[in-house]
Design brief:
Elements: H1 23-33, E1 38-42, H2 53-64, E2 75-76, H3 79-88, E3 94-97, H4 112-122, E4 130-134
Length: about 140
């Protein structure tokens, strides 16, 4: 993790969790600086379970969270709980949807859950949240 403080990050007290040169370093700093959301999908190249996606999601979320760390109110397996957390948790919170494929379907885009997640992703400049969804296969979403 980077130990330098970036003047372009609000409050100047938050550190960029990604080291200089990491592909996420500049993207994260830009999104924080512009007060925008950042959405990340973590999946397994071979669509396997048990490869550490949940741990990676929690560690990534903890590193990016600027509102006191990841709590049980910020991590869930229920898409509707994620939607509620999106509007209830403070600015610059990391939110994690574990096993995202369980409540979301790429074949049923008109479900209430899919509509709400689409809404979150489409208005993603407003609430300054860092959304992390993990799934064994990105095609499940």
């Amino acid at each position: 993790m980077s130990t330098d403080t970036h003047a372009d990050i609000p409050d100047q007290q938050w550190q960029n969790p990604f080291p200089e040169g990491h592909p996420m370093h500049d993207l994260y700093a830009k999104r924080v600086r512009q007060e925008q959301d950042l959405s990340v999908i973590i999946s397994d190249y071979h669509s396997r379970r048990g490869t550490g996606k949940t741990i990676a999601s929690l560690q990534l979320g903890e590193g990016m969270d600027q509102s006191g760390g990841v709590t049980t109110g910020k991590a869930t397996v229920e898409p509707e709980e994620l939607r509620n957390a999106y509007f209830k948790q403070p600015l610059r919170s990391s939110l994690i949807l574990d096993e995202g494929e369980l409540g979301v379907s790429n074949r049923d885009a008109m479900t209430t859950v899919n509509k709400e997640l689409r809404k979150i992703l489409s208005i993603g400049r407003v609430e300054q949240k860092y959304l992390i969804i993990n799934t064994p296969d990105i095609d499940f979403l």
